[in-house]
Amino acid sequence: MAIPRLLVVDDDAETRSMLTQFLQQSGFIALPAESEAEIRSHLEAGRIDLILLDVMLGAENGIKICAQLRTEQEVPIILVSALSQDHQRMAGYEVGADDYIAKPFNPQLLLARVKAVLQRARRSPSLVYRRKTAIFRFGGWSFDAKRGEVLSPQGYQVALSQRERELLKVFLASPHIPLKREEIHAALDVEREGAGPTEGSGRAIDMLVGRLRSKIEADPKEPQMLRTARGVGYIFSVDVETEEAG
Length: 246
Description:
The protein is 39% helix and 22% strand. It is an alpha/beta fold. The protein folds into two domains: 5-118, Response regulator (Rossmann fold); 133-243, Orthogonal Bundle (Arc Repressor Mutant, subunit A), CATH 1.10.10.10. The strands form four sheets. A five-stranded parallel sheet has the order 2-1-3-6-7, with helices on both faces. Strands 11-10-9-8-15 form a five-stranded antiparallel sheet, with no helix packed on it. Strand 1, helix 1 and strand 2 form a beta-alpha-beta unit. Helix 4 crosses helix 8 (181-188) and helix 8 packs across helix 9 (201-216).
């Protein structure tokens, strides 16, 4: 298996050097870059398996760069930023970022998120962007997002409420990546202006996850797909295949 090639994009030389060295010591090939021009130069020069992209790049904007890259290719992108409010995270997810990590962060957490994104069996942009996909297949199940139809491995249709369907889309858009309750809440309410976590919203997510588990898990008390990520939130632990509308 080829060693993953990562591109570390940050306009701060010290941060760029620190991250590059850390990732190299962790077994990756890590290449530094500080601008969109350098990103494109690396992409043209050879394979890049993942981009760590800082949101604030001097006069350049990482969100805009991510959006443009996403229209051209499906290289995984993790945004890194000191801006950590929900609407700022969702701005990244909306343009197709696969993950969003707030500064300051524990390097081991960054490493775990990088590995999680790289482990995806099938590349496709994430969260809100990927929720536009027409058909998802996971663990023998099938979900037609346009029709709102969910079919079990046995071929029978399972009725989900609108909110349960929206929650399922969020998880299917980001398999194998731990999602915080706040991120899930923001993804569900991204189209509502000013929407963000409210008092009790975490508990509401827990209840909604419980209802979804009761419909798609063989044993909701011992879930195999929609698992709890201790200390974080939830993680969808099965591979997801996608199909666009015909």
